[in-house]
Amino acid sequence: MSTELRFTVTYRVQGAADEIAARADAIRFEQTVEFPMDLTPERIIEASVGRVVEIAPAAAGGHRVVISYPSAIVGKELTQFLNVVFGNTSIQPGVRVERFDLPPEMLVGCRGPRFGRQGLRTLLDAARRPLLCTALKPMGLSARELADQARQFALGGIDIIKDDHGLADQGFSPFGERVRACATAVAEANARTGFRSVYVPNVTAPHDQVVDRAHLAKAYGAGGILISPGLTGFDAARRLADDDQLALPMMSHPALLGSFTASPDNGISHYALYGQINRLAGIDAVVFPSWGGRFAFTRDECLSIAAGTAEPLGTLAPIFPAPGGGMKRDRVVEMREAYGSDVIFLIGGDLHRPTADLAANSRRFRDLVESYI
Amino acid sequence: MSTELRFTVTYRVQGAADEIAARADAIRFEQTVEFPMDLTPERIIEASVGRVVEIAPAAAGGHRVVISYPSAIVGKELTQFLNVVFGNTSIQPGVRVERFDLPPEMLVGCRGPRFGRQGLRTLLDAARRPLLCTALKPMGLSARELADQARQFALGGIDIIKDDHGLADQGFSPFGERVRACATAVAEANARTGFRSVYVPNVTAPHDQVVDRAHLAKAYGAGGILISPGLTGFDAARRLADDDQLALPMMSHPALLGSFTASPDNGISHYALYGQINRLAGIDAVVFPSWGGRFAFTRDECLSIAAGTAEPLGTLAPIFPAPGGGMKRDRVVEMREAYGSDVIFLIGGDLHRPTADLAANSRRFRDLVESYI
User: What is the 8-class DSSP label of residue A276?
Assistant: First the structure.
């Protein structure tokens, strides 16, 4: 038993102090055998049920409850890992997943980020500075119009030119047509500038089309893949990250994930959701809404995401935080100071604002970022 | 323009009365072009941006905001439909999706439930009575032990014998071995009893294994498919429901979906999440935790789920609510009165309690239900 592989999940649990031990017991059974304690054979309790490792008052309110689970009940599947972490207990009021800790030997079948921070820096030839990112928008433009935008952004030196996450396979800009046009435009711009800008199309799609779209994107010259795991499931990202024939950097978008952090005493912490789970799913850069934009994440919540992208997690590489959600050029200094240089500045609408010349706007954005190295 | 296909989403929005119009504007842009209003070309606003149809105080607090979206921005994809309904706005505090309304012509590429209530009743030869369901558990038992359980339940006349949702492909009971053993056991029992019990294995699995496991399950004689869309993404269910070579009833489990309903002013209503979205995804029977068990959904919330499984939604068939989560035999009368007879009683642990003879316990459960027709 002493060599058995186990991992821990840290929950924050609400309730009166004298109820917490019973709540912890309920969680360790609910997340495993989902069976009455008195009916569960002793050998099953020993082999499969979680064990309470720690109960202590939590600074943020409620109690910190650490439960250790045997890796044997996960197998090698990210879906079942997430199920053990929070499946049924997500439906219990007043329980929040704060973090999990995995032994390096246990990576639940995930190779994790293929590129990570260092790989992405090498690919984009940006050794130390923050990376620049923007999104092609608004939806409703044609593939040709989006490709014109992409060309301008690439000429101006934006590193990562991604689809807006609402671009799927609509009639106004069908997936294949858009990807071919945008990837070609970025490649042509790179040939002129010497930059290594990448076009990153959105492959959030029906279950049976995600993989095909990613491969089609690669064939057309895409330099990365964008996916919204809240819409596809996290394992769709893991599937693409693990694909040696694809071997492209993966970027995730937070669409439909907001409910996990909507209540401070429920759901999954920013740290675990945007940092840890994205890394397990093989994401190299995670988009989230930074403070001071159109959304309401606090500075502390955003910095906890950045921490979750980098702190030790098995043997997984650190990945890039990509704060967006209404960021503007005048926030770059503040963000640079808060996030450090291992950050992707994602600026969308504001990059259209200074002049009608997107390439010139982009160059000024790049100059601004480079001046702070 | 007058013949353009549009659908509506009803949100409940928090905020001072004089802020609601601005919040509604923010939502209709955020969910579509995600671009500053003043920079969006008029033709794009006309063609792609949502339109506010109604703003009115809501009985539950906040305001009811109805936004109409053009189906053209969805295309034919459930992933993009969910993205338009709530993608980015899920991250905004104080916005809840209450329901959506689709014209019959627009089914976002979903054929919907293949069986529905009527199809499931025909399949199980149960014209009018509530259906009976249980789960094979606890995890940690071997495939042979689970198959012995399945046989007993089938001999006792349980209609639907499903995997516990934590059974995946662990070493103690590998998927293929378990499914073959359990399906065979149920078929043998049916041959003795004349009942039409079905074994419903869990195919919640890595992205690239969901479809294969479902087909393997069918080859081994499974009579339905269980999936947790919170873990796989809803479109994995849709993919299986649409599969003419599979053509098995689909049952969903709520694992990891709890955060959507954890806060009354955020997330997605029980009605829309468990009723409407499950139907769009082709689910024939939706498991959820009923009031009075181990979870905290209220009676009203549970009955709103039942309403969402049946009220008109395009041309989609009504499906079965399957209330579980700690239901016991002594709740059957109360549940029968609340849900009516179009319900699946899902009783797990409690079916192990009266005696060690699971077949006898199951027969008594069935007798109890049949006595209330």
Answer: I
- Least Cα distance to A75 among B175, B163, B207 occurs for B175
Query: Cα separation of A335 and B219, whole Å?
Result: 56
pLDDT at B2 over 50: no
Q: Do A80 and B165 touch (CB under 8 A)?
A: no
What is the C-alpha to C-alpha distance for residues B331 and B338, in angstroms, rounded to an integer?
Answer: 11
**Chain B CB contacts of A110 below 8 Å:** none
Beta-carbon separation of B79 and A26 below 8 A: no
A145-164: burial string, b at 16+ Cβ within 10 Å, e else: bbbbbbbbbbbbbbbbbbbb
Q: Quick one: pLDDT at residue A47?
A: 96
pLDDT tens digits, one per residue of B289-329: 999 999 999 999 999 999 999 999 988 999 999 999 999 99
* More confidently predicted of A76 and B113: B113
Q: Using CB atoms within 10 Å of the CB of residue B275, give its burial: 0 to 12 exposed, 13 to 18 middle, 19+ buried.
A: buried
Give the separation between CA A225 and CA A120, rounded to whole angstroms: 13
Minimal CA separation from B123 to chain A, in Å: 28
Spell out where B243-351 has E strands.
250-252, 267-268, 285-289, 320-324, 344-346
pLDDT range class, residue A124, cuts 50, 70, 90: very high
pTM for this prediction: 0.97
Q: Is the pLDDT of residue B3 over 70?
A: no
- Share above pLDDT 90 across residues of chain B, in percent, rounded to a whole number: 95
Instruction: Give the pLDDT score at A373.
Output: 61
pLDDT digits (tens, 9 = 90+) for A47-99: 999 999 999 999 999 999 999 999 999 988 999 999 999 999 999 999 999 99
Lookup: tokens for A31:
């997340």
Peptide bond into A104 cis (omega under 30): no
Q: For residue B281, report the phi and psi dihedrals to the nearest 5 degrees.
A: -85, 5
Do β-strands B51-57 and B6-13 pair in parallel, antiparallel, or remain unpaired?
unpaired
Long-range Cβ pairs for the range B184-191 (8 Å, 24+) = B184/B147, B184/B220, B184/B221, B185/B147, B185/B148, B185/B150, B185/B151, B185/B154, B186/B150, B186/B151, B186/B154, B186/B161, B186/B221, B186/B223, B187/B221, B188/B151, B189/B150, B189/B151, B189/B154, B189/B155, B190/B154
The mean pLDDT value of chain B amounts to 96
Q: Do B83 and A228 touch (CB under 8 A)?
A: yes
In angstroms, rounded to a whole number, what is the distance separating the alpha carbons of residues B79 and B83? 6
* Cβ–Cβ < 8 Å for B98, B12: yes
Distance from CA of B220 to the nearest CA of A (A): 22
CB contact under 8 Å between A259 and B238, yes or no, is: no
Q: Residue A225: beta bridge partners?
A: A250
Position A2 pLDDT exceeds 60: no
User: Cα-Cα-Cα-Cα dihedral of B51, B54, B56, B62, to 10°?
Assistant: -40
- Residue A78: per-residue pLDDT: 95
- Rounded to whole angstroms, the Cα distance separating A192 from B302 reads 61
Mean pLDDT of chain A: 96
- Chain B residues in contact with A91 by the CB 8 A cut-off are 254, 257-258, 261, 289, 295-297, 325
Residues of A in contact with B87 (CB under 8 A): 165-166, 228, 230-231, 255-256
Beta-carbon contacts of B246 under 8 Å, excluding residues fewer than 6 positions away, are B214, B215, B218, B225, B240
Chain A residue numbers with beta carbons less than 8 Å from the beta carbon of B165 are: 34, 83, 87-88
* Percentage of chain B modeled with pLDDT above 70: 98
List alpha helices for A293-331, DSSP H: 299-310
For residues B168 and A201, give the distance between their C-alpha atoms in angstroms, rounded to a whole number.
Answer: 32
Note the pLDDT of residue A320.
Answer: 98
**Does residue B91 register a pLDDT over 60?**
yes
